[in-house]
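__Record contents__

***
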Amino acid sequence: MKILVLCTGNRCRSQMVQGVLEYLNPLLEVHSAGVKPADAVHPLAISVMKEVGIDISLHYPKSVNQYLDQSWDYVLTVCGSAKESCPFLLVR
């Protein structure tokens, strides 16, 4: 199953959701992206996830543009801004 988690900056929420989904089921192919990606994952997001045993320290913000030519089983938006400005993505 292929899942894209989308938010504005790909700095916090989408990175955390990606980490949780990968932790719950390592067989999932999970990616996260932003419509306006930030420079880095928020340090507090990394810290909070570490507290629950999930390491997202190697994650980095990515643009949704690099995923536009792929098809997805699910596209999850985790903020209203991303939902409103989400480009067309092919969902299977």
